[in-house]
Specification:
By secondary structure, this protein is mostly helical. The chain is built from 8 helices and 2 strands; from the N terminus they run αααββααααα.
């Protein structure tokens, strides 16, 4: 068991390193650099040169990669040029909201998928069975951003029922206790729904059959 866990951890570390390295190379080998994308004509050449020097863009690619990798391993992700503070601080500020959204979305995904699979198993081969299969596979194929835009268009801009963005309203940020919780809940409905609805199909597929059953080219439940 311990050997299996160590192999899985090692494989995960290698996968993360490969994905991060490929991403670094794609960004680095793309035409131009961050300094060349500063299109404001008021920026003097000396400021652009200083920008390249401060962020190491004037160094050879192997040296930049070694510096970037060492920083990533030690947790030093550098400084955000737009916000003028450490990248780790920016990520830490966004982490709590991200965890709230993903955990609630995952819960909705699992609860919805497993619940629909149980309903189908109780009454198989009927009209409800086929309707649930069609609906879940359709949700499985839809991109999350498309569902999110549709939900915002309907429930925020057409029906004016739910807020389209942010975690709290201006009034909610100045309140505490139950009113703040209710304001937060209203802001969570649409993003959690967008995450959960698109993931229900995957959870339903695994609960009903296996993950391979929803792969392209395979029959429903084959």
């Amino acid at each position: 068991m311990l050997r299996w866990a160590l192999r899985r951890i090692g494989a995960g570390v290698v996968l993360v390193w490969l994905v991060a390295t490929v991403t670094f190379l794609l960004v680095s080998l793309a035409p131009g650099d961050a300094a060349s994308r500063l299109t404001d004509p008021r920026i003097p050449p000396a400021a652009r040169a200083r920008f390249r020097r401060d962020f190491g863009l004037d160094r050879p690619l192997p040296a930049r990669y070694a510096s970037w990798l060492a920083g990533a391993v030690t947790g030093d992700l550098g400084t955000s040029w737009t916000q003028r503070r450490q990248v780790t601080a920016v990520l830490a500020e966004a982490l709590p909201n991200t965890l709230i959204l993903t955990s609630l979305g995952l819960f909705l995904e699992l609860a919805g998928g497993i619940g629909l699979a149980i309903v189908q198993l109780r009454r198989p081969h009927g009209a409800g069975d086929r309707a649930i299969t069609l609906a879940t596979l359709t949700a499985y194929a839809m991109p999350t951003f498309g569902v999110a835009l549709a939900l915002i268009a309907v429930f925020s801009y057409r029906l004016h029922l739910l807020p389209p963005s942010h975690m709290l309203s201006l009034d909610g940020e100045m309140t505490y206790g139950w009113p703040r919780f209710l304001d937060l809940a209203r802001h969570l409905v649409l993003p959690v729904a967008a995450i959960g609805v698109t993931g229900v199909g995957a959870a339903w597929c695994r609960a009903r059959w296996s993950s391979r059953s929803c792969s392209p080219g395979r029959g429903w439940g084959s």
